[in-house]
Amino acid sequence: MSLTLYYHPLSSFCWKALIALYENGTPFKPVSVNLGDPDERAALLKLWPIGKFPVLRDDARNQTVPESSIIIDYLDRYYRGQTRFTPADGDAAWQTRLKDRFYDLYVHLPTQAIVGNRLRPAGAKDPHGLEEAKARLRTCYDMIEAEMAAKQWGMGESFTIADCSASPSLYYANRVLPFRDTHRHVAAYLDRLMARPAFARVLDEAKPYAHLFPEE
Ligand SMILES: N[C@@H](CCC(=O)N[C@@H](CS)C(=O)NCC(=O)O)C(=O)O
User: Fold this and answer.
1) Burial class (CB in 10 A: 0-12, 13-18, 19+), 216
2) Which residue is closest in CA terms to ligand 1's atom 16?
């Protein structure tokens, strides 16, 4: 087996890559990285000095591929399966990538900031950053609500990279700023994502680590 994924089962960006791998049944070796372990952290830094996961290693092609979106692009190109993550057609292609960026930058990162704020020690909290992140999420919820009223998946009929990005983003966003009572189409979209076998599997595998998530 040539692919190895360096990841953690609770990490939201790793979920995004896992969904893509599970979606097409792509064989890979999962290597769980405990960033609290100096040796394991050092091994990850050796692969990708930025020190963030997921990182995909492809021994067959002698390539190290960091960044969840790039991993999915790489799989789409070199380990193609039944689900194509980015359409080949011009407009649909950039619109799909735009949605991937939208979920990562404007839903996922503010959610990460809210979680990160919870982990800060008392006296080092960032109330201003927290309010900014919540405001950004509210804007996104309204945008997604309008958009998903008539759609099954982020790009319509087909499951794409946009849905790989939306899955962890919306799952964790709902944990830190719940939307089920205010945005029913966003909630219904999250339910569809959670029922998708690839994401259901990811959620199931994360269960043993759920207690590590910092509740308010
Ligand atoms: N832009 C990156 C973000 C990856 C990321 O933020 N990963 C988090 C886990 S969800 C991480 O590695 N956190 C550990 C750290 O920052 O030390 C991607 O899309 O893969």
Assistant:
1) exposed
2) 52
Cβ contact 183:170 at 8 Å: no
What are the 10-residue block averages of pLDDT along the chain, 216 residues in total? Answer: 95 98 98 97 98 98 98 98 94 97 98 97 97 98 98 97 98 98 98 98 98 93
Q: CA-CA distance, 77 to 50, in Å (whole number)?
A: 24
Q: What is the whole-number distance in angstroms between the Cα of residue 13 and the centre of ligand 1?
A: 6
Pick the atom of ligand 1 nearest to 8's CA.
Answer: 9
Answer yes or no: is the C-beta of 68 below 6 A from any ligand 1 atom: yes
Which residue's CA lies nearest to atom 11 of ligand 1? 52
Q: Which residues of 111-121 are buried (b: 16+ CB within 10 A; e: fewer)?
A: bbbbbebeeee
What domains are defined for the chain?
3-78 (3.40.30.10), 90-196 (1.20.1050.10)
How many angstroms does the Cα of residue 112 sit away from the middle of ligand 1? 9
Q: What is the pLDDT of residues 35-70, one digit of tens each?
A: 999 999 999 999 999 999 999 999 999 999 999 999
Which residues share a beta bridge with 31?
Answer: 6
pTM above 0.70, yes or no: yes
